[in-house]
Amino acid sequence: MTHHLLIPCCAALLLSAGGCGSGGTDDPGSMNDSTAHRHTNRLIHESSPYLLQHAHNPVDWFPWGQEAFDSARAQNKLVLISVGYSSCHWCHVMERESFENDSIAELMNERFICIKVDREERPDVDQVYMGAVQLMTGRGGWPLNCFALPDGRPVYGGTYFAPAQWRQLLQDLGTTWVQEPERVRSYADRLQQGLAELDLVVLNEDPAPFSRKELDRFVDVWEKQFDNEHGGPDRAPKFPMPNNYLFLLQQAWLTNDPALKAHVKLTLDRMARGGLFDQVGGGFARYSTDVLWKVPHFEKMLYDNAQLVSLYCQAWKAYGDPEHRRVVERTLAFLEREMRSPEGAYYSALDADSEGEEGRFYVWTDEELRTALGTDHELAAKLYAVGGDGLWEHGRNILLRPVDDSTFAQRNGIDPATLRTRIDAINARLLEARERRERPGLDDKALVSWNALTVQAYADAYEAFGTPAYLEQAKRTMALLLGPCRRPDGGLWHSYKNGKATINGYLEDYCFTIEALLALYGVTFDEAHVREAEKLAEYAIAHFHDSTSAMFHFTSDLDPPLVARRKEVNDNVTPASNSSMAKGLFLLGHLLDRPRYLALSEQMLQNVKGQMDSYPGGYSNWALLMQAHVFPFHEIAITGPEAGALRLGFGRHHVPNALFLGTTAGSALPLLEGKLLAGASTIYVCQNKTCRMPVGTVEEALRQLR
After folding, report:
1. DSSP letter at 505?
2. What global pTM score does this model have?
3. 504-523 confidence digits (pLDDT tens)
4. Is residue 489 included in any domain, yes or no?
5. What is the DSSP string of 598-657?
6. Does 638 lie in the same domain as 623?
């Protein structure tokens, strides 16, 4: 990455590689033991695993807070805001190279007030300073290192810097501040103006109806970027981007587009069979570094895996491929085994590095496989392309599946059922052998937003497969979000660890929890979930809504102000909080017959629709909402004593663009009024509050939907 420094005295210094990925962690058992280290700084009192990793740096780190900025003002120093996360590889590289270097640390302490930020705990801070770095350099990533005035306004930043570059930058920027402070302040003023314009969303005061042509054009632009040989985008790295494929999958079925159906399936199949998916233990890594989905960045993030479960549930319904169901089941098994806390919350991330190497926990030499498997080695070597497509570096293999079970069984003369049994046995033995290795570090904080995505994943899996344990886990986690993670004023906290919830919630915590509550309602018909979603929506409107633009700020009006109050509009590895909020309001508006919610949701979509073609992947969740306006949107009401069973009967069928609601004994929801018939279980297929003749079976209802 080229770092474009806009303070000329430093311009020649900054040609370096950007970083975003995973890395090793300190021994958690020693993180709070100040006696075992030469240095201990203020971060020792924090709970964030990422901050604790830096608690013994010789850098005099501050956590984010007023104390740091007061010190900067008192000492007239620039502030360094250094942002990362616990499983970030290049964050750890820079720590080892620079932040653990005594002489570099001395320079940092002498010239700057240094703040360490966990981007997962403080996404609001990350958004502001990442936006500034992107304005300056055209790129972003982590570690993020941004220099700011004592009042917090950014003046320069970049991502990873090699030690010599970093040292020179510290010297030159520190000198510039001392000798030419007005020049630095002038640049900060200009950059502040640019930050203010980043999230400029203009209220569309003359909206036109949404049209099929808009969605067709959106997909046409996107299709030019498809890799129709390997799936996904026609470039590397390749991120799974679940929301992108949820939209494309639904669009393919709504338009009956065979080419789009084929591309989505190709992508999902290649992701599941490649190194991106942990063939032994289940679960997906962060992204693929190549076009083949072979070599991942090996860290595993909760938000990826939760969303991918939801995606593969929908794929299983659409394509009927048993491989997609196994992906769901094995990913949830991974979450249960390695990511769930005793009280039912889910941890944030697993690191990539162990034994000082990225991916060491997951890769195998042929000899290691032979030792673990004995007589099954030959079959496993064929199955996972050992020594062939799976060969990586240093004689180690990334286990991957070149072909599906059926093709492999046919080629090797094995009964498919027998093959499945042997694969399961091989994976069990490899998992047992792998557990004897040094494990990657665990980020053991639980984030409300990511846990809400996980609740939705379990609800979706229950809907698809009817497995009671999935529903029970969804309920258990939601109880935690609405219990210990609920603020006294009815709002949400953001982070939970060791029985304590902290950090005022962000918009993502509200919108993802609203969607998870509505997903739970859709499979249980428990109206308490709708009422809780309504409470959170009203809280979000009260504390996050910007009436001028009709959009939502990312931070609450109860939070101390930052130098910019941003609005998250572009969908990324998770849906943008504004697009998710718009979807939640749309669904709540229909369930509760609230024109105010529906109007607000529609206005938000109108505000962004003119931008969607410019960056299709960044508006996929918005496009999902647009589908509900362009194509028939159905309300499917199920009433009577067998309402629950009938609801599960839809689980095996892909029913896009629909809202399920129901009751067994009466309901206050307007759409269910008058629909409970004595002694009968009935399905009503409705559109715009107008219902067809009631039917008694799922098959009859599906025919009405066609």
Report:
1. P
2. 0.93
3. 999 999 999 999 999 999 99
4. yes
5. HHHHHHHHHHHGGGGGG-GGGGHHHHHHHHHHHS--EEEEEESTTHHHHHHHTTTS---S
6. no
